[in-house]
Design brief:
Helices cover 3% and strands 46% of the residues. The strands form 31 sheets. The protein has a 24-stranded antiparallel beta sheet, with no helix packed on it. The protein has a 17-stranded antiparallel beta sheet, with helices on one face. The protein has four helices and 112 strands.
Length: 934
């Protein structure tokens, strides 16, 4: 399998170099993948492939994906997801065959199921664990078995905290697409999840079968007590939730016994809450109690502000940092402890507007600003006067209104919208869309109640589409009430109708289109019609259900709903409804499907797909019976092609014949120029005409010999510039002394030589033994560039392991996995280490099989360590926190100068370096002299 971590990436690079052409719509990515032609293929707006169903196991960008599964791509052509055909090593982990493997836009794994036990960020995960990454760092894991994490056993789903969880980065990336998260900057992970047994944390025993959640500082945020527990002088009840602030003080919990707090006795079995300053925030009185001049009966809920002042009108409230008061039990937090929202207990003023008690409010994760609430009083916001009770949602980064639900009639951009209408705005304040509560006239058009109206962006609130409330005449055409209507971009189409349903028969460009037809316009010209009834267009009667397209006012394509007579020929099909007929600009038919046999230009055709030259002459068709033209008899039921002057261009012989002095067998193709002279270079196979086109292919119905190679029935052969590019072999096939396996895919380069194939037997090439059943890659000169060893093999200073992929240059192995330990450049590397050399034999990089000490620094297993040309380390990931030249660095990727000094790294703690103060986890750069800079 091609897909090993290093070698697999080489395959992707070579593939792109071999198959890319200027005419490619999907350059170097999905363009020449053999997709199942019977399955849906989705494309991006620029024509690049978005996803498709693989017809066979296929190597894409270094990973072989499984046949009959769908593969997805990003707009730049990189793979988003697919199902590997075999266990696949990617970025230091081996993922299961047949399970979805996802990548982020940067090419890092985002989701995958492990095929083997793997250590990731210091945690050993068992086979079968599904790992979720963000920015290449742990995000979540679905554990199939008990797993030891930071000294505790967990099961089920666990969530990890590190700097990649800070959505600030997502926010910055949205503003500046070029900015990305620095690699491998993360805090030691603190897991949120379920343990397999009760866990004791800082002397408090929590139930292990229920989730324990942590703050980012690794202190417990919340959990369920396993037993009655005394914390900070109060006893809290077993099997109830307790929550803590980041400073470790209790936020709230359920009392196990009555408690005297600041001289007031609170009732057992009820929640009691505290402010961060330690003062009580709320509780339930155990006995009748006088508080600040008033007597409250037993069982009364009471609430206090930050300073201990009673707020008697706020029964069962909670406070967040002394600012927002919420009804008890409604407050919500994000995973890192930041406030998500709750139900207001009192009116609150935010951004100058009063929001109503008893309504839900929401705060965005970044930058933790107020994002939604219900107005308690009338307010003018972004030029709109909203009534009390309006539910408002804000954009988090600008504070502008994003959406509003209107409680009363409200004027927006000169239109009064009825109570109950929902309005949505773009960031610039212009209307985006409205869900109408009542019929409403906008820009002179009455739109229907309970339907949405969409507006063009930043165009003075002009409708883009909506549903008509009644029959409406626009520029002389009546459009049907209750149907959708669309308007063109005002800047380009001057606000004219872009599409709608006719409310009555309408004359357009000399044709009467029946009521109920859907019509579409571009720049005021008709572009498409979906006929509701029969209509005569350019002298042809098209049936109801036909979809006609227009270009420059002339019909360019028609998807027929029934057999139709066009220019004296019957087009359509009994077995393929909605067959398309295409037209040239002069009105002549370009192509279509003949519904019945017909004689055209004197030639008896069987029907089916037929095309014509622009002058109206027959171009391509299928002969009915065999037919003799100019003394040559052509085969029945086969395609025959003609030049514009009516002369035969290409056909299949019905019987063996001598044509203009050259002998051909039955079934072979003969080709002629426009004068009728034989073209002797004609290819004797049915793929020739299509092979003239870049990127064309042929679906084989029988084993077929092409260019001397027999390809398998039921598969597709692809061509490029007249040559076979790839296909599936019908039998073991020997090419240039190498035998390739039957049923395997073979790829040829631009010169027609094998680029990639699967060996039918163990094969020695340039003295190196390669394994049968494995793919081998060849250079243009026929030498091997990559393959899988059939036996251990020594080349240079290393012995490479059988069954592993090696890279080869001019007959020498330059990269592979060590079969036995080897000392290279004075360092001993254990078996399993991947090594890469340059042509001179100098070590370029290693991927060690375990943590390794190199030049006094321990580097992390399964991560690449690269070297300068003087043998000094150039780049590698530290295995642990490491002190180098008196500076403590985080276990992240670190670069070094050729003199061995650190070039850049990430400091593990706040420190001062050469008079400059660096915060924890900040990057630091050094020049070759050791001078530091931020």
């Amino acid at each position: 399998m091609i897909g090993a971590v290093t070698a697999g990436r080489n395959v992707g690079a070579v593939w792109a170099a071999q198959v890319d052409t200027p005419s490619s719509p999907d350059a170097g990515t999905a363009r020449e993948i053999a997709f199942d032609p019977t399955a849906r293929i989705e494309r991006f707006p620029d024509g690049k492939i978005k996803n498709g169903l693989l017809k066979a196991d296929t190597a894409v960008q270094g990973i072989t994906y499984k046949a009959d599964t769908r593969i997805y791509f990003y707009p730049d052509g990189s793979v988003e997801s697919g199902r590997p055909a075999a266990e696949t090593a990617v970025q230091g982990a081996v993922y299961k065959a047949g399970e979805p493997l996802w990548f982020d836009p940067a090419g890092k794994v985002s989701i995958g199921k492990l095929a083997a036990a793997t250590v990731i960020q210091g945690i050993k995960f068992e086979s079968g664990t599904t790992i979720y990454f963000r920015h290449g760092l742990l995000w979540e894991a679905d554990l199939p078995a008990d797993t030891l994490i930071q000294g505790k056993h967990y099961h089920g789903t666990v969530t990890f905290q590190n700097s990649a969880r800070d959505d600030r980065w997502d926010y910055i990336n949205q503003l500046s697409p070029g900015l990305s998260l620095p690699p491998d900057v993360f805090a030691p992970p603190a897991a949120d999840g379920k343990a397999t047994a009760d866990v004791v944390i800082k002397g408090v025993r929590f139930r292990g079968d229920l989730e324990v959640v942590y703050h980012k500082n690794r202190k417990v945020r919340s959990g369920v007590l396993a037993a009655d527990t005394t914390i900070q002088g109060l006893t809290f009840k077993a099997n109830t939730k307790i929550e803590f602030y980041e400073n470790g003080t209790v936020n709230f919990g359920c009392l196990a016994t009555g408690a005297n707090i600041h001289g007031t006795i609170y009732k057992a079995g009820y929640n009691v809450g505290f402010h961060e300053n330690g003062r009580i925030a709320f509780g339930t009185l155990a006995v009748a109690t006088p508080i600040q001049g008033a007597v409250f009966s037993a069982g009364s809920p009471v609430t206090y502000d930050l300073h201990g002042k009673l707020i008697p009108e706020l029964p069962q409230t909670r406070t967040q940092s002394g600012v927002f008061y919420f009804r008890d039990g409604t407050e919500r937090h994000y995973g890192d402890g930041r406030l998500e929202g709750g139900t207001l207990a009192i009116n609150h003023t935010v951004n100058g507007h009063v929001f109503k008690a008893g309504t839900k409010v929401h705060f965005d994760l970044y930058p933790n600003v107020f994002s939604a609430g219900t107005l308690a009083a009338e307010a003018m916001i972004d030029g709109v006067k909203y009534a009390a009770g309006a539910e408002i949602v804000f954009y988090e980064d600008t504070g502008k209104v994003r959406a509003a639900l209107l409680p009363a009639d409200t004027a927006i951009a000169g239109v009064v919208y009825k109570a109950g209408t929902a309005v949505y705005f773009d960031q610039d304040g212009s209307l985006n869309r409205i869900k109408l509560k009542a019929d409403t006239v906008i820009q002179g058009i009455k739109f229907k109640a309970d339907t949405p109206v969409k507006f063009h962006s930043s165009q003075t609130n002009r409708p883009e589409w909506g549903t008509l409330a009644e029959d409406t005449k626009i520029k002389g055409i009546l459009y049907k009430g209750g149907t959708d209507i669309a308007f063109s971009d005002w800047l380009h189409g001057k606000g004219m109708v872009a599409g709608g349903t006719l409310g009555a028969d309408a004359p357009i460009k000399g044709t009467i289109y029946p009521a109920g037809s859907k019509v579409f316009f571009g720049h005021g010209q008709l572009t498409e019609v979906d006929l509701s009834g029969d209509a005569a267009i350019e002298g042809v009667l098209y049936k109801a259900g036909t979809k006609a397209e227009f270009r420059g006012g002339k019909i360019s394509k028609a998807r027929l709903s029934a057999d139709t007579i066009i220019q004296g020929k019957i087009f359509g099909s009994n077995y393929t409804p909605y067959t398309e007929v295409e037209f040239y600009g002069n009105g002549n038919v370009k192509s279509g499907c003949l519904a019945v046999p017909a004689t055209i230009d004197g030639f008896p055709l069987a029907g089916g797909n037929t095309s014509f030259h622009e002058n109206g002459k027959l171009k391509k068709g299928f002969l009915g019976p065999k037919f003799t033209i100019d003394g040559v008899t052509y085969k029945a039921d086969e395609r025959i092609n003609f030049h514009p002057n009516g002369k035969v261009a290409e056909g299949f012989l019905a019987a063996a014949a001598t044509v203009q002095g050259r002998f051909y067998e039955a079934g072979q193709t003969v080709r002629f120029d426009e004068k009728g002279e034989l073209l002797i270079e004609a290819e004797p196979n049915p793929a020739v005409e299509e092979a003239k086109k870049p990127l064309s292919g042929l679906d084989l119905t029988a084993d077929t010999k092409i260019e001397g190679i027999t390809f398998k029935a039921g598969t597709r052969v692809s061509f490029i510039k007249g040559r076979v590019q790839h296909g599936t072999l019908a039998a073991d096939t020997t090419l240039n002394g190498i035998t390739y396996k039957a049923g395997s895919w073979i790829i040829f380069n631009h010169r027609g030589n094998v680029f990639m194939g699967t060996l039918a037997a163990d094969t020695v090439l340039q003295d190196i033994p390669y394994q049968k059943g494995k793919e081998i890659l060849l250079n243009d000169d026929g030498t091997v560039s990559e393959g899988t060893l059939a036996a251990n093999f020594t080349s240079g200073s290393a012995t490479y392991k059988a069954g592993k992929t090696v890279g080869v240059d001019r007959g020498k192995i330059y990269s592979g996995s060590l079969a036995v330990g080897a000392t290279i450049g004075g360092i001993f590397y254990k078996a399993g280490t991947s090594v890469t050399f340059d042509r001179s034999g100098r070590l370029l990089s290693v991927v060690p099989s375990e943590n390794i000490l190199i030049q006094g620094i321990t580097f992390k297993a399964f991560e690449t360590v690269s070297f300068h040309d003087n043998g000094k380390v150039a780049h590698g990931k530290l295995a642990t926190l490491t002190m180098i030249d008196g500076i403590l660095f985080l276990d992240t990727y670190t670069r070094f100068h050729k003199n061995g000094k650190v070039a850049d790294g990430v400091v593990a703690a706040e420190m001062t370096i050469q008079g400059q103060k660096f915060r924890e986890k900040q990057s630091v750069w050094f020049d070759e002299s050791g001078k530091a800079r931020k």
